[in-house]
Specification:
The complex is a heterodimer of chains A (258) and B (336). By secondary structure, chain A is mainly alpha-helical. Chain A is built from ten helices and two strands; from the N terminus they run ααααααββαααα. Chain B folds into two domains: 213 residues, Orthogonal Bundle (Arp2/3 complex 21 kDa subunit ARPC3), CATH 1.10.1760.20; 70 residues. Classes of the chains: A mainly alpha (258), B mainly alpha (336).
Amino acid sequence: MVVVTKQELQFRKFEELACISSGVHQLHPVAPFLVILAYIITLTSYPSDAFINLIPLTLFPPIFARLARLPLGLLVRSTLKVLPLIIVIGILHPLIDTRPMQIGSFTLHHGWLVFASLLIKGFLTILANFLLISTLGISGLQRAMKTLGLPPVFYLLFTMVYRYIMLLMEEVYRVLRAYELRSGRKPKLRAQEWGSLPGGILLRTYEQGLRIQHAMEMRGYSPKQPFGKEQSLERKDILFAASWLAVFVCLRMEFFHG
Amino acid sequence: MHMADALISPQVGAMMWAATAATGAYCIKKIQVDEHQGPIALAGILGAFVFAAQMINFSIPGTGSSGHIGGGLLLAILLGPHLAFLTMASILLIQALFFADGGLLSYGCNVFNLAFYTCFIAYPFIYKPLAKKVRSNKAALILAAVLGLQMGAFSVVLETLFSGKTELPFSTFVLLMQPIHLAIGLVEGLISAAIVAFVEKSAPQLLNQGAGNIQEQSTSALQKLMAVMVVATLLTGGILSWFASEYPDGLEWSIQKVTGSTELEAPSPVHGVFAAIQETLAPLPDYSLKTSGEPPSGWLQTHWGTSLSGIVGALLTFMIVLGLGFTLKRKTDTKA
């Protein structure tokens, strides 16, 4: 039952962070989107055993969080929660890849280097992902999609899925709670109810969703309506994106290493 | 089965983004032709259902463990493959951004692995033909769910290996991925079958919406899907082959670990004779065009032969698979 609350909190947390007033939040959503995407591409473009080269890139998240006034500690904690998935895949490397590597005065298995590289890349890419959604929120994401030329059908569908999730989570939470109480605190669904319980939720929310849709249409809703205020790319947006892109290119080309 | 950004290279990420965008654009075109707002609202609701239903723990009898709903196949049955693909893409975007289940760069890979195989391979080629034949579509659904997930899992292995971000041998990775996803696929298939059976009984009109959608579009849809697949094949052959030829594959990697060389020595004279015949006949040895004289120099020169070999090889494979498909289809039609 706690899971539902956690998911709802996750959505709310990012929506609230997206409402922060900062220079980065006021930029056109495409600018931070491109910067974060370029950062992830730069990170993942390094070879599997790159380690030292990744260190300068660890400076980006704190700088970006500072510029956007985002609480880095909170985002780091969220990142650490999902990192075990990377660890599961990474931990096999030291066991399989036992080629010796000479680092300074001691010898290390090559697999450990790959594992460390994977861990850093995993941590930084997930953190970058959270920085992006904390800056854009759902409305910024829609505007970015629109500016990048994605078809309206897709972002309309995306918005609907997102909005209905909020509606459905409450519904699923209530049904699961009722099931738990009536079945003597059984947390898992027995095979006899595999079809009827989720099927019942599906039919009820389908009808509820259509009622909402009709109500919206009756009040003049049209999918062609623009999402939020129209915003065009300005000089500051281009400057922000271009300067970060230049930094990433220089770092990747090892410009600063001489 | 969601891939993380750290596991893929920008090249593979970009290519899978392109393949996903092409499939998505094709789906959007299909929907815009004959659909309006209603199906999108329905897709939104069902997409949210698939997302929210992942919170439900389905107890697997006799094991003590629990499974979760999959969604791709269920959506394809309820909405038709085009809308199901787009709905899955929306769910995966939300999962990637808000829960880091996947990532931005690996988004194309995840949509392709989790939505393409179920919506455009498992649903039309496994579920639909089988469901027509057998009285209960339960078996068809389970088989389609299992095979769809197996294809997705295998795709994860290939994408990871082509990316070169992990150095797990091909065999180890396949042995890790496929059996786990066999069990997951079985459970997901059973759950989906139970839900579909319930909906079929309680609100059959919901199922008919998806089915009607598909029958109307089948011929032209298949042609366009083929076009998308050809483009993806060419991209795979033309671009991925650069990386495939630069790094030893999983099997070669394992051989290298054991013997110190990527190729085994010929153990007998018979092997030598066959190797000579192969050398004479094979037009694309080691994925590169045969050259006489000096090896090519420069990036373009070294890659064009590899690309051409990759494209020809991929097209040949594609044509063989297509030929097999048509032969099987004709056999099935004759029997029916």
